[in-house]
Amino acid sequence: GHRMLEQQLQLKHTQLRNRLVMGSMHTGLEEGWHNRKRLRAFYEARAKGGTAMLITGGYSPNLRGKLTPISSSFNSYYDVFKHRAYTNAVHKHGGKICLQLLHAGRYAYHPFNQAPSAIKAPISPYKPKAMSLSSIKKTIKDFAHSAYMAEKAGYDGVEVMGSEGYLINEFMAPHTNKRNDEFGGSLENRMRLAVEIVKAVRAKVSEQFLIIFRLSVMDLIPNGSTPEEVTIQALELEKAGVDIFNTGIGWHEARIPTIASMVPPGAFKEASKRLKDVIKVPVIAVNRINTPEIANEILNAGDADLISMARPLLADPEFFNKYNNQLSKHINICIGCNQGCLDHVFKGKRATCLVNPQAAFELDYPLEKTTKAKKVLVVGAGPAGLSSSCYLAEKGHTVTLIDQKMQMGGQFNLAMQIPGKEDFNHTLAYYTNELERLNVTVELGKAYDDSMLAHYDDIVFATGVRPREASIECSDGKRVFAYDEVIRGEVELGKSIAILGAGGIGFDMVAFLSEQKSQSISDFKSQWGIECEPKPYKDDRQLYMLKRSAGRFGSDLGKTTGWIHRQVAKQHSVKQIADCQYHSFDKNGLTITVAGDKQVLAVDTVIACIGQVSNNEVLAKQSDNAKVHVIGGAKLATAIDAKRAIYEALQIAREI
Ligand code: FMN
User: What is the model's pLDDT at position 277?
Assistant: First the structure.
């Protein structure tokens, strides 16, 4: 198809240099004076990387709309002064920047929250107060005032957050709006708040100041707006003065994945198309658009005029420039894992990125060119070894990477076989291309031996992990399989399978054994019942998940994705047994003790997903050698994941 991402877009008096918009992301750097230089550096890197327009994280127009008591608002001259640093930095690099105004409504995590009606959200412990008419009028004024101040701060526009189940969206949907005054009941009344806000903003800002409205096209909750209603909302809002529509998908309380890695790339392009079909102003497409190919496909099909990428610009701030310089194969692609970004934000930690630990840490973890080039050997070409080789070479060192296997990738090769984790393919391809660009010498099929020590200034051991073996007595020719041999397809599986361990790998095994790889958009929608009835499953295998600890399954999975893994297990009728001891495995099944009661579970296959051990045998002798460094799973197998592996790779490269 055509390359459209680089085309300019003229918007009234504002020209966007291309079609790439950075979607709104609250990073955790917004609060407090002390982080302002970090946030400036974060925005500056994305503007410098060619992005046409950035949208900030959500700022509340007033006190009650703050997401948490310590969250940021935007309405004072102090804010104007602080934010000029951001707008100047972006403008210096030819980019545009808009401030997002977000009133959290009933999702606000404090006791002073407000909503159209006093109905508690399932995801906040605080029951909101129903807004009085005067409070609604005041809120409309507050939005307008914030927009007015945003223009003073040098912003090119504001984005009014009207989706994801926040205040404005709560007014739109009958689910949360039970009012019987002029702000509730009929569609016209329910959308009055949104329309009044846009009109009030328009009246307070100059003509060239942009108003983006993020409209919820699919609420994905019962009693949300219907597609017909959304159409009317869009038309009315356009009349009220909206310059650009951004697409919103799903309320936060919806139990349907909308951005996680199992969402097929481009899954919601149809939602943007729906807007585009009825309005004249430009439309932004969102969610899981992570490659230039998908972006161009959406633009070419006329499904949207602009592409929003949020997490993909955490993964690679230079996304646009690389694409534009025909270097797309060197883009570090977002895998949709949420492990570094949203999971952090939910824990009150700064957002960053699994594949790019420098994201939002630009000033904390710079990688400066070395003045003393060294010869460095990296042992092991898994996530830690690949990334450390690239960082070391980027720094100016001469790097050799060896692996005893004939194939690079280590655990990446397992991860990408899990349905919903196919995007790890991109990560491995990225590192492979980077190694070549950075002239790293790669020697596969080569094991480490101590004679190599003398030839290098520094050695980084990134030898990774192997599965922990289960100590279960086996007879009748039975054997407990390790998860890696199952994923590699090396063993034959039966019809009734016990999975030992309920950590991330245990749940990945459930997906591996029951889900489809590279699911199509329509299969994804029918699995989750997106605007249709969910498809029931008929599995021909019965899966059991067993764990030794008591309590809920999957409680230590990531906050933003754990519920999806638990839901998938439910969809496939996986039976879960906690507080369980494993004893022996024979032709009758697996003998276990559950809460003191000994029994035989009639399974024909047992797979151990019970953690990992470090591959550190070669290291024992070198533990006090100053030129030897150990990172990743080889250093500590407990809870190793790609996030820690790549983070440690960056830190070791900064040190050497
Ligand atoms: N969307 C908003 O409208 N306002 C926000 O403040 C906001 N904060 C976010 C913070 C993080 C760390 C992330 C990852 C997303 C946030 N989002 C927010 C949602 C993004 O704008 C976007 O819709 C979502 O990440 C999916 O798009 P992507 O696949 O391009 O990342």
Answer: 96
